[in-house]
Amino acid sequence: MTPASDTFAWQPLPDGGVAVRYPADGTVTPAELAAARRAWLAAGVRYAQAFLPLPLTFSTQPLASVGFRPLTVLELHRRSVWPTDSVRTQTANGLTLWPFDGLDPAVVKATLARTYVGSLDGPELNALRLDDAPVEETGGLAVVAFRGAEPVGVLQLEASDDGTLLEFAYLGVVPEARRTGVAAALVEFAIAHAADSGRRAVLLGVDARNAPAKALYARFGFAEYERRAVWWWVNESAP
Ligand SMILES: CC(C)(COP(=O)(O)OP(=O)(O)OC[C@H]1O[C@@H](n2cnc3c(N)ncnc32)[C@H](O)[C@@H]1OP(=O)(O)O)[C@@H](O)C(=O)NCCC(=O)NCCS
Q: What residue spans define the domains of the chain?
């Protein structure tokens, strides 16, 4: 999730895209956007996505003029963490959790890729991701959930800059294991981990169209506190 910020900047993603930081007041000149687009084309960037604060208080015409289009709305959800949350079980529902760095990277990558299948969370972007993209390093706790010997889900967490909050960088379950409680167990684990490490709240971003994920988060007391318009640009000439 890339929040709105005060300056226009972009950050390359390992999957061949870029995440654009758009200033909260929307003051980006058409010349700045055109220069950015030239740089992306020259570097073979596959797509760019920008997150705009809602309600919009500025014109999106400069974005549209370089080929950006509205994609979806990202809802930002928050749940407070209480000391009693640490009592939750850490290997709920018979799952075993393994950190990425204790696993064969090919298993991590293949499991992640399977969790994208049928996803309602920015599915348009999944189609653009490089097949051989390296796994994104979030710098936080990243685990694969196993049921027996089968990898069934992935959870990636990261701390906020000041360390008081825990953010979901990614949560996904492989299609065959959906609706069997894997995600619920991983959300419980994340909340317990947040309580154990003294965080005040857990944050996440979810595509407004992703009804299954929103039902899951609502069940654990997450509530929306902000939303962003997601706009995207696709490099039609990228292979
Ligand atoms: C969303 C997702 C993570 C849910 O994982 P899951 O393991 O199937 O979820 P669970 O079995 O733990 O379900 C827990 C609760 O979530 C809700 N839920 C999950 N899937 C649902 C669906 N398809 N429709 C409605 N509610 C759903 C229900 O409240 C469910 O409880 P119930 O089964 O007792 O009714 C999974 O569908 C997925 O990986 N999707 C693709 C990636 C994705 O969208 N990730 C979320 C990014 S924010």
A: 9-76+230-234, 78-224
Lining residues, ligand 1, CB within 6 Å: 115, 119-121, 171-173, 178-184, 206, 210-213, 215-216, 219
Q: Which CATH number is correct for 78-224, 3.30.565.10, 3.90.226.10, 1.20.1250.20, 3.40.630.30?
A: 3.40.630.30
CA–centroid distance, residue 152 to ligand 1 (Å): 13
pTM above 0.85, yes or no: yes
If you measure from the C-alpha of residue 112 to the centroid of ligand 1, how many angstroms do you get, rounded to a whole number?
A: 16
Q: Which residue's CA is the closest to the ligand 1 atom numbered 2?
A: 213
Residue-level pLDDT, tens digit, the chain, 239 residues? 444 457 899 999 888 899 998 888 888 999 999 999 999 999 999 999 999 989 999 999 999 999 999 999 999 999 999 988 987 655 567 899 999 999 999 999 999 999 999 999 988 887 777 666 667 666 789 999 999 999 999 999 999 888 899 999 999 999 999 999 999 999 999 999 999 999 999 999 999 999 999 999 999 999 999 999 999 999 988 77
**Cα–Cα distance list, 31 to 35, 36, 185, 212 (Å):** 6, 9, 48, 41
